[in-house]
Amino acid sequence: xxxxxxxxxxxxxxxxxxxxxxxxxxxxxxxxxxxxxxxxxxxxxxxxxxxxxxxxxxxxxxxxxxxxx
Length: 69
What we know:
Blueprint lengths: L1 E7 L6 H12 L4 E7 L4 E7 L5 H10 L6
Antiparallel strand pairs: 1-3, 2-3
């Protein structure tokens, strides 16, 4: 089942950060889409909750250098 999760990632500062986040989350199985709002410092992820849980997504963001909550 597809789910949309929005996370706050305060370390987002530029489009390069957004690209890094999209690349990192694009490698996570079950992630169908990623939208990064640099101004609002948020990441919105469309994902299959059975394959990519919120914890999996936040872990991938942590590993990419963008801790999120």
